[in-house]
Amino acid sequence: MSLLALKDVTVRLGGRTALDAVSTAFTPGTITAVCGPNGAGKTTLLRAALGLIRLDAGEVRLSGRDPARIPPAERAALAGYLPQDRRLAWGVDSLTVASLGSATAAPDEAEARGREALARVGLSGLEDRGVFEMSGGERARVLLARLLATHAPLLLVDEPAAGLDPEAQLLTLDILRDHARAGGTVVVTVHDLNLAARFCDRAVVLHQGRIASEGEPVQALAPDILRDVFNLDAAWIDTPDGPLLSARRLQVGGGGV
Amino acid sequence: MRAVRLEVGLLLLLALSAAAAVSLGETPLDFSQYLRGLTQTASLEGEILWSIRAPRAVAAAVVGACLGLSGALLQGLLRNPLADPGVLGVSATGALGAALSIVVGLSVVPGAVEIAALLGAGLSGLALVAFAARFPEPEALILFGVALSSFAGAVTALVFNLSPTPIATAEVLSWLLGSVENRSWIDVGWTVVPLAAAVALALHVRKGLLALTLGEETAATTGLPMRRLKLLAVVAASLATGAAVAVAGVIGFVGLAAPHLVRAWVRENPSRLLLPSALAGALMLVLADLAARLVPTDQELKLGVFTALVGAPLFGLVAWRAAQSWRT
Questions:
Q1: Is A13 helix (H, G, I), strand (E, B) or coil?
Q2: Same domain, A30 and A85
Q3: Which domain holds residue A70?
Q4: Cα separation of A202 and A34, whole Å?
Q5: Going by DSSP bridges, is the β-strand pair A210-215/A202-207 parallel, antiparallel, or unpaired?
Q6: How many of the other CB atoms lie within 10 Å of CB of A124?
Q7: pLDDT tens across B102-126, in order?
Q8: Is A130 within 8 Å of B268 when comparing Cβ atoms?
Q9: What residues of chain B, 7 to 46, have a C-beta less than 8 Å from chain A?
């Protein structure tokens, strides 16, 4: 049974249809990549899944219930969210940020979870460091630790690899895949199709608010989809480390660049 | 632990500054006069110490605490280091209430101006709460607060314009400039209940303020009832600001500056900033009032004028530092 399901979900934002009759489901034990060009509706899908925005049509079911009607503490126990925007308002220490993953738990429990999560992302010893004294990559890991400290079965992560160096990208995706392997449900939006193919069990490709394809990443991101949705002349190459995308941009009119 | 040490240190400094504010004044007293004042409250010296200086010092402390608490609440709620109690228009509407009561001749009724100011602040607080319930985004709240403040300012100007007598105009102006001069224990009593309620609410919402560090949407997914907590934060800030305006008129910059004085000590944690900021506000205003009293001028400097004179350069410094941090 799916932990998260969307049925005919339509969302209009500022006169534009961000999601158009989207139906899909996310099952435990899998990590799903939500792919698509800028403005395809990836972030809107995550926000709709959490009940953070009003639906114009359709319904979302989080553990069988409307997420907008689930009490905040119960919803937080079901789903954790990491937005793409990594700005923090104040330079609080990293342990305080990580401990916010379990904001409704007792302080000792929240701190223990925060420490454990910081250790998982490789930041042991930096618990007292202010987030404004850290590099962008370290700050991203602190925020990932906050997500892990939720202990929620469903993790919704918006562009986890954006702005990170290659090692941090792989570490982040490894951790999220481990969560799925341990029985969790992970939904990530990604622009890097190679990461989607290498780390994810499934891909949902969005184009102008609609699902263009879904399935195993290499199939969902087949050459015709890459051409029609991403404007790429591309093909997958098998390598020992997994599939690798060879691509070039299509010019208007069909020629490659 | 660090926050507790800070709070104890601020309390000690506040006690020292309050003692100085009670000890020093226009009428110099020698040691024997102090002793008589301390032991015989009905003596002339006792009157000076306990009926004039002490309530004034305590009024300054309570008003400063209200403003410091309100500033810390609003900066945390709006995630903006430049927010202060004036930003939501509560000060301006409180001032309008007081101005109206003065021009219609209610200032002769004890407590009428204070009640009018509290009502003005309370009404704007209710409007803000209603607005925040519909539009919880901080940017929307700031815009509404600015509109409210501008409108209250315009109506206050109209009150001046239509003021029936020059005496009423002067009285309104004097009140708007902000002061704790001639405040009694009864005046202090006006602020204690709203301040206590505001402190209780502030402590209740503090984790929500910390969660807002992550941004509005992420905070909404932390499991905390953010909508309710944000509403209560607005109520607490309105109560504290209203109480301050009711007793002392409009005093700027304390609400802006107090949180900045102690922010580094609490590692910028908005949930730990509330009480230290209230104590820092109290300390600032007691010292500012003492300084305003001791500056040798023919007319005693109004507290609101003094804090503005000191606070405006500080505001510039805050803006400078904020602008620098945005570049990094």
A1: strand
A2: yes
A3: 4-221
A4: 9
A5: antiparallel
A6: 11
A7: 888 888 888 888 888 888 888 888 8
A8: yes
A9: none
| pLDDT surpassing 80 at residue B314 | no
Q: Which tokens is A125 given?
A: 């010893």
Indicate whether A73 and A199 sit together in one domain.
Answer: yes
DSSP-derived secondary structure letter, A256: B
In A111-140, the residues whose Cβ lies within 8 Å of chain B are 130, 132
Residues A129 and A13 in one domain: yes
Would an 8 Å CB–CB cutoff place B270 in contact with chain A? yes
CA distance A240 to chain B (A): 38
Nearest residue in chain A measured CA to CA from B80: A89
Cα B313 from Cα B215, distance rounded (Å): 30
CB contact under 8 A, A130 and B267: yes
CATH number at residue A160: 3.40.50.300
Residue among B207, B223, B270 minimizing CB distance to A90: B270
The total of other beta-carbon atoms located within 10 Å of residue A108's CB is 9
Chain A touched by B268 (CB under 8 Å): yes
Query: Do A248 and A181 belong together in one domain?
Result: no
| H-helix or E-strand spanning residue A248 | strand A242-249
Nearest CA in chain A to B270: A90
The backbone torsions φ and ψ at residue B267, rounded to the nearest 5 degrees and listed phi first, read 55, 35
The fold of B2-327 is ABC transporter involved in vitamin B12 uptake, BtuC (1.10.3470)
Q: Nearest by CB to A100, which of B210, B225, B268?
A: B210
- ipTM score: 0.90
Answer yes or no: do A151 and A245 share one domain: no
Q: Smallest Cα–Cα separation from B188: which of B118, B233, B246?
A: B246
A81 vs B221: CB contact, 8 Å cut-off?
A: yes
Q: What does the pLDDT profile of chain A (257 residues) look like in tens digits?
A: 789 999 999 999 988 999 999 999 999 999 999 999 999 999 999 999 999 999 999 999 999 999 999 999 999 999 999 999 888 999 999 999 999 999 999 999 999 999 999 999 999 999 999 999 999 889 999 999 999 999 999 999 999 988 888 888 999 999 999 999 999 999 999 999 999 999 999 999 999 999 999 999 999 999 999 999 998 988 899 888 888 988 888 776 555 44
pTM of the model: 0.88
The domain tally of chain A equals: 2
Q: Which residue of B has its CA nearest to A52?
A: B217
Q: Is B284 on the interface with A (CB under 8 A)?
A: no
Distance CA B167, CA B171 (A): 6
- Sign of torsion over alpha carbons A12, A13, A17, A19: negative
- Co-location of A54 and A101 in the same domain: yes
Extract the tokens encoding A88: 């923090």
| Location of structure tokens 């553990």 | A63
Q: Are residues A94 and A147 in the same domain?
A: yes
Contacts of A130 in chain B (CB under 8 A): 267-268
My answer on whether A197 and A232 are in the same domain is no
| Nearest CB to A104 within list B224, B267, B325 | B224
**DSSP letters along A35-98, please?**
E-STTSSHHHHHHHHTT-S--SEEEEEETTB-GGGS-HHHHHHHEEEE-S----SS--BHHHHH
Amino acid (1-letter code) at residue B4: V
